[in-house]
Write a structure and sequence with these properties.
mainly alpha, globular
Length: 405
């Protein structure tokens, strides 16, 4: 049985020796923490003010829209500018928005449209994370160490998914929306300090001038011509249409199938993040001998298999085991996703290709709407089975491409 120190060294010892990686990782941890804290607090506040679940869902979708619209353009832009400056700029904008909305709330003038605008701008920061910060992680450690780097980054994200909502709820209850936004601003300020300490990276040399539009077209053309990239992007779309949206139904399953109250639903939701965090740590420490394609596609398969077990179960222990398995599948998929795309991309196009990956992730709102419509029509237990079957069929239909990974 390896010691904790040995596990740490196997997981990320080599990448943590890189100064720029450490600083970029710290930026990511802070941004992940404020992301989940802010989402929970804004969602609860919005529901308290409006009493409308649809408004809460709308704010979530508003955050996802920039990923679908701006992923490729942001990737093309990131390949033409200093990524460090881009990172500092995105964090600075997030800080300014948090301070501005906190000031508006303190003045008693906070309205719903302020939260819509701030959520959309926050979504732009999400969309920029893959082509800017995560691409910088890859450049800092090199393609050969991308897997442990992504494992550590993913584990941090999933850990913040467990802790962030708890902290957000506690801060909102004790300090109100103004205090919560000030806490968010403070975390953004710390992230900005860390981002400013990242070493500058030269802008990749290029030949003819490249516009953002032509860069986006070239990126899509390269992805279509490479079966590895096309397969990885198709699996990403499948996950976001038929895999990830099931997580939005956890509260419905908890209430309707298991009879849980808010506390039980909270624990059930936390199991997803816990499973994903444990999976990310385990894969980072022991998964280097497993082919990336096995982890990537296998993570989706595990999730799709566990989905019917989760939605059909009326036994809490079985439901908890199923959602833990779904979290493990999410970890296997999420870690290898960026690793595969980054490694298969031409070096001069890596930020652009990570932007295209972000755009594929941005298909998630379609999947959320699909499973929500089905759940209203036939019940969440039937909807979950149907969605899992659709995802399995889509995975089988695209095997020609993902087998090339």
């Amino acid at each position: 049985m390896p010691s904790l120190h040995a596990l740490r060294d196997r997981l990320a010892g080599s990448v943590l020796h890189e100064r720029d990686f450490r600083r970029l990782w710290v930026v990511g941890v802070l941004l992940y923490a404020v992301r989940w804290l802010e989402m929970l607090a804004v969602g609860v506040y919005t529901y308290q003010v409006t009493g409308s679940a649809s408004w809460v869902a709308t704010l979530t979708l508003v955050r996802l829209v920039p990923m679908a619209l701006l992923g490729v353009p942001l990737g093309a832009l990131a390949d033409r500018i200093d990524r460090r400056r881009a990172l500092v700029a995105t964090v600075s904008i997030s800080l300014a928005i948090a301070v501005a909305v906190a000031a508006i709330a303190a003045a008693g003038r906070l309205e719903l449209w302020h939260l819509v605008v701030s959520s959309f701008i926050g979504g732009i920061g999400w969309a920029a994370d893959n082509p800017v910060r995560r691409a910088m992680l890859g450049f800092a450690v090199g393609p050969e160490r991308m897997a442990p780097a992504m494992s550590l980054d993913a584990a941090s994200n999933h850990g913040c998914r467990v802790v962030g909502p708890v902290v957000g709820g506690a801060v909102l209850a004790s300090s109100g929306i103004v205090g919560t936004l000030l806490v968010c601003a403070a975390v953004y300020a710390l992230a900005l300090l860390a981002a400013r300490r990242v070493g500058a990276r030269p802008v990749p040399s290029s030949g003819a001038p490249l516009t953002i539009l032509s860069g986006a077209r070239e990126t899509i053309a390269v992805a279509r011509a490479d079966p590895r990239l096309l397969g990885a992007l198709l699996v990403t779309i499948i996950w976001n249409l038929w895999g990830w949206p099931l997580f939005s139904m956890i509260p419905v399953v908890g209430k309707d199938r298991l009879g849980f109250g808010p506390e039980g639903v909270g624990v059930l939701t936390g199991l997803d993040g816990l499973g994903a965090m444990v999976g990310a740590l385990a894969i980072g420490a022991f998964g280097r001998s497993v082919p990336p394609r096995t982890l990537y596609v296998g993570g989706v398969v595990l999730h799709l298999v566990a989905t019917p077990l989760f939605v059909l179960s009326t036994v809490p222990a079985a439901s908890g085991a199923a959602i833990l398995a779904m979290g493990l599948g999410q970890a296997a998929f999420g870690i290898t996703q960026a690793t595969i795309v980054f490694g298969a991309s031409p070096p001069a196009m890596r930020s652009r290709m990570m932007g295209l990956l972000t755009m594929c992730i941005g298909t998630a709102p379609i999947g959320v709407a699909h499973i929500g419509w089905l759940a209203d029509l036939v019940g969440v237990h039937v909807a979950g089975v149907v969605v899992a079957a659709e995802g399995a069929l889509a995975l089988w239909a695209t095997r020609r491409w993902w087998r090339a990974i």
